Amino acid sequence: MMSEEIVGKKTSLSSLIYPKRIPNIKFGPIKDEMGFTLSERLALRQAWNLIKPFERRYGQDVFYSFLNDYSWGIKKFGNGTELDLKALHSHAFRFINFFGLLIEEKDSVMFQLMINDNNQTHSRCKVGSFFVGHLAQALADYVLKVFHKVSSLSLERGLDKLVEKFQNYQDNPSITSAHNRLSKMNSDPRPPRGNPVEAQGMNRNYIGRRTSAADAASATAISGF
């Protein structure tokens, strides 16, 4: 009787340890919080490292070709009776630069804020998602055309996802401007929680990254486009 109790206790104890549960297996590529796989992220960043030295030229090629198809857009750069060439050239460069900032951004919250700011800026200038999405698609097509010899399926999928994010987040009036939220945060007199030195450093780093992204997003809609 005693031996049976001992055996029973050993059995119940071993049942807690063996057999070990098999972890849940996820099939397919693992995606980050922004929906990109590791191979897509890598392909986008490698392509953008090649584009960076030629951002101004590529931006002009894409934007001016786009305006040939949507000629009404050039009116957005008028300052009364004359065409504001400075704003036109600046937008051509800033748009492709903003595209690159999205690719390089690792923080999903910052990524979302950048998309939201771009949405708000173009909405104020009465430029809808249809045209912004088409411009993003024109840029993606241009990149694939320029790098057709070294293009990959991962690069194509990554660009498609970026274009989709431009299309999804436009014309959304429920989104609050990230710029307004950040301004409210900066004016909040309450001290940060936790380590004040660490919090101050994190806040400064966040604001610096946020400012550069906001500048690029705002510049993509200079004079209304």
Taking the sheet with the most strands, its summary is: none
Which consecutive residue ranges, at least 5 long each, have pLDDT under 50?
172-207
Strand content: under 5%
Order of helices and strands: HHHHHHHHH
Briefly note the CATH topology name: Globin-like
For the record, the CATH class is: Mainly Alpha
Number of helices: 9
Q: Which CATH architecture?
A: Orthogonal Bundle
Compute the separation of the termini in Å.
87 Å
**Overall residue-averaged pLDDT value:** 73
Radius of gyration: 25 Å
Q: What structural category do the secondary elements indicate?
A: mainly alpha
| Dominant shape | elongated
Region (Disordered): 176-199
InterPro entries: Globin-like_sf, Globin/Proto, Mb-like_M
Biased composition (Polar residues): 176-186
GO molecular function: heme binding; oxygen binding
